[in-house]
Automatic annotation (TrEMBL):
The keyword Transcription regulation does not apply. Residues 29-330 form the Plant heme peroxidase family profile domain. It is found in: Secreted. Its EC number is 1.11.1.7. Ca(2+) 1 binds at D71, V74, G76, D78, S80, E92. GO terms for molecular function: heme binding; lactoperoxidase activity; metal ion binding; peroxidase activity. This is Peroxidase. Binds 2 calcium ions per subunit. Binds 1 heme b (iron(II)-protoporphyrin IX) group per subunit. Keywords: Calcium, Disulfide bond, Glycoprotein, Heme, Hydrogen peroxide, Iron, Metal-binding, Oxidoreductase, Peroxidase, Secreted, Signal. The keyword Transcription does not apply. It is an enzyme of class 1 (oxidoreductase). It comes from the Eukaryota.
Amino acid sequence: MVKSINFLLLLSLLAFAPLCHCKKKIGGYLYPQFYDGSCPRAQEIVQSIVAKAVAKEPRMAASLLRLHFHDCFVKGCDASVLLDSSGTIISEKRSNPNRDSARGFEVIDEIKSALEKECPHTVSCADILALAARDSTVLTGGPSWGVPLGRRDSLGASISGSNNNIPAPNNTFQTILTKFKLKGLDIVDLVALSGSHTIGNSRCTSFRQRLYNQTGNGKADFTLDQVYAAELRTRCPRSGGDQNLFVLDFVTPIKFDNFYYKNLLANKGLLSSDEILLTKNKVSADLVKQYAENNDIFFEQFAKSMVKMGNITPLTGSRGEIRKNCRRINK
């Protein structure tokens, strides 16, 4: 009798076993096949619209990548960065890191509109951001990775979180590392994800102090190549020109590669937050040298770190919602 009960128990466990292993889950709840049944063309639609936007304006790739980063570092990867101000919600778009610089919202709107037509109320804005970041990387020559999916969208925003949690160009190395560690990321993730600065632009106001008064002594940052600094000063004066744009990687500004790290080794990193990866910490400096020497190692780690960042406290299950419009919560 006992043997027959045990046999029946074993049969019942085996019957349910395939249900437990049918899809590889990453980070507990997120997995790349999340929409395979509910919206099979989701990734294809995102990629198509991102490709069109980047072909029209190459800078858009960096903008979309940055949106995902600025989303995840606030309340987790929940599309809070996309919300406009309304009612009690104060938009993160008004924060210091985002004001006059965060962009690409219209591309996300276009993707969301297309997905709502294809499979209404199914694909979250948070997942759109994660997919658009991956596609932007690939379209500019960078690595690809399977994007874990299944995030849901937040019901609010945090302008204070946006102001305080996102690393700033003038933060010290330790402050930046602490901000990464508070999100479950480490020094390897910091150096690898900083490599996204191989594409995109920065404003004069983000690095002006390096050109004129880095330490309060009225002199340029000594870790910045002085010929390069003189060139930057021609379009970034002591006052005025705050919004003037400069490429972050002057060698291959619209190609995703490891020249960002090679530029750091030549003392030609644009932002203070870039150059301190080489000058303020031996572990990070060794990683900069490794990625400068080997593009494949950089690409492999960048992909791993992007998946890790994309797993920062996502809303899953019944938490949050699937917004119909990425700019506002559902009514």
